[in-house]
Write a structure and sequence with these properties.
This protein is α/β, with parallel strands linked by helices. The chain has one domain: 3-Layer(aba) Sandwich (Rossmann fold). About 40% of the residues lie in helices and about 25% in strands. It has a 6-stranded mixed sheet with strand order 1-6-5-4-2-3, sandwiched between helices. Strand 5 and strand 6 form a beta hairpin. The termini are far apart.
Length: about 200
């Protein structure tokens, strides 16, 4: 009986650890275009808004890898759009046309937090300018923070917007508070897992 109790206690501790380790990203807002209907996306261009090439590459490659695991064709933008063309609307448009992608997902850093603040509501208000893919992307890139600024805080407020490549209109948006202290890349991986899971549950993939 004592051995059984010890085993139960050990399992409980392990389960608690797994649950807390998976909770590094808390959804603070979510929105889906009510006029989208049953449309799903099968080919996605992944854009991570970052001025640091290595950060952009890691994020986009990981996102593309996770989408491919779900049977979605995914392309990391750094493989087709050079850094010096990141704010060239025509260059991005040509890349999208040549690839025949049907969606573009753009992720940016909204802000940072030194301490966790609990968010209760999940009603997402579409910010001005974000309903147009290129306007949103250009404004996000111009205000992207430095690496030291982002990594010096405990929580990143991340936003991912999924755009319909045909209409260039916003189809889905999600925001989170993501804990990143000391494990920046692994926390970003967890964030991506959260976004991909929500894309699936909303029947967008």
């Amino acid at each position: 009986m004592k051995m059984h109790n010890r085993l139960f206690s050990c399992c409980a501790v392990i389960l608690l650890f797994l649950l807390t380790s998976c909770a590094s990203s808390k959804i603070t807002g979510e929105w889906k275009d009510p006029e989208l209907g049953q449309k799903k996306f099968t080919s996605v261009l992944v854009i991570g808004v970052a001025k640091q090439p290595d950060r952009r590459k890691f994020y986009e490659d990981e996102f593309a890898k996770q989408l491919k695991r779900q049977g979605v064709m995914a392309i990391a933008s750094h493989t087709i759009i050079p850094r010096d063309k990141m704010q060239d609307k025509d260059a991005i448009a040509r890349s999208i046309e040549g690839l025949s992608v049907d969606a573009v997902i753009v992720t940016r850093l909204q802000g940072v937090k030194a301490q966790k603040q609990v968010e209760h509501g999940k009603t997402y208000q579409v910010p001005y300018g974000s309903d147009n893919m290129y306007d949103y992307y250009n404004s996000s890139f111009s205000t992207a923070p430095s690496r030291s600024y982002a990594e010096s805080h405990d929580y990143l407020q991340l936003e991912s917007n999924l755009y319909d490549a045909e209409t260039e209109k916003l189809a889905y948006a999600i925001t989170t508070d993501t804990f990143v202290r000391q494990k920046f890349n692994s926390r970003l991986t967890t964030y991506i897992e959260t976004v991909v899971r929500k894309l699936q549950s909303n029947n967008l993939l």
